[in-house]
Amino acid sequence: MTVLARAVAAHHQTGLTARAAGIRDALGDALAETSFDFPVLIALSDALREAAGGLSDVAVRLAQDSVAIARRSLQGTAMPGAMPNTMPTNPLFSSARGMLDVALSLLMSSLHAAGRPQESLAAAQELVETWQEVDGTDLGDDHRLASALCLLMRDQMDLGMHEEALRYLGQALAVVERVGASELHMPPSLALNLESLAQTLWDMNRLDEAVRLMGRAVAAWEQMSGPLADQELPLGVWRSNLALLLQATGRLDEALHVIEASVEAQRRLARRDPRAYEPMLMSSLLNMAGILEDLGRTAEACQTMEQTIAIGEHRHRMGFDAGNDTGGIEGRLMGYKLRLAVWQHRLGAWPAFMAELGGALKMWNRLDPLDPDTEWRAGGPLNEAVLILVEAGRWEEALRPAMTALDIWSRLACRSEAHIPDFLQAYRALEFVVPRLGPGPGPDEDDAWFPALDRRLTSSVPAAKAAVQDAMARHG
User: Which of 4, 129, 267, 288 could form a disulfide with 27 if both were Cys (CB 3.0 to 4.6 A apart)?
Assistant: First the structure.
């Protein structure tokens, strides 16, 4: 029946829906006529929970049956035949409480797949209570309590119950610290749950707690890391995220140490399979460049950013990222070049600053100017580049980037009030530049960039001004 379950999913994925329906009906008949022991229920529910065609509800029912068996076992009232003579290798199956942990965790996953978050929350609460009842002397129980708390908080936050979730945070952190201080290796499932909870806390701007949990997740994964890509890839990504959290909390030296380890891990993977793993290497290099710049090591930041750009340009030439959303590799490269331009200016390298700025603007001409992600990548460093040119009195060179910055921020200001200050900065910069242009002919009307920008500004700037007036009226 597990084979039938997987066959349904496979046929749906390949578009053979009629054949999948026939297999699903056969599976339904078999499920209706058969009773299962605990391990088989677990295996079937796990096989069905992500399947299409209505099978997620069947997975929930099977998981509920496994929870019922585990509850009876924990209460000492398991029915004859409910517990098999030979259990699988999962150590949790060696105890009734461990069985209930497995069953409730699978039930939560199945309920999530079926779109039933409130019921998943109830299962998470039962899971926490299951491990809160023990005396805490077994570190393995601490592992499971920590995982249960992470899952409960995840469900609460998914439902917008942030205050309720934060009430459990202190307990979760205390248990995690106790586990981390022990010599017992943290299981991969707990490391994954800690990383997920750290990401949620990061989104809530709870940076100190996020650093603690992400640090524990990284330490746990380091214990189990090996030559396999499926172990090294999460470690590289998590180290990079931990470095960003440390950077956000001002712990720059620690952040640099962590990001250097992340870059080294990503380099190993990229040497093994450049096409698959170079994007993550680029991400880690980008983060390292930002940390080096924050440390005042601008020359090293520029070198690291140049490595990032070189990898990206090679991938673009090879067509590795064709069809990528949000501007693709060119969109990212444009943002990288603008940041590099600003850093080159800080080193006093004016020709390099102008070269990178010009290269970025040429890329902008080839991209969809209405893509929000591309605009966001360009807007901030472009405003900074315009300010550099204005302060240097380079009015002619400032015109195109100033018009481009205003074009970007006028649209972004219409989408969110948060972008209004950047729009006003870009607007004032162009107002400052235009009267100071020399008596020469100015931009060639035949240049592709000028008429296109001019047309967009005639519609986008009035709309942005209206957005500013609306915001002022709302906020007095």
Answer: 4
Q: Which of 113, 107, 98, 143 is nearest to 125 (CA)?
A: 107
Count the Cβ atoms, other than its own, within 10 Å of residue 327. 24
Longest alpha-carbon distance in the chain: 97
The residue whose two tokens read 């106790």 is 178
**pTM here?**
0.77
HSE-up of residue 423 (Cα within 13 Å, Cβ side): 25
Pick from 382, 259, 278: nearest CA to 324: 278
Distance between first and last Cα of the chain: 66
Q: Which amino acid is at 209?
A: E
Q: Contact 467/424 with Cβ under 8 angstroms?
A: no
C-alpha–C-alpha distance, residues 67 and 85, integer Å: 19
Phi and psi at residue 370, in whole multiples of 5°? -100, 5
Q: What is the DSSP letter of 370?
A: T
| Amino acid identity at 364 | W
**156, 98, 168: which is closest to 127 by C-alpha?**
98
Residue with tokens 């501007």: 327
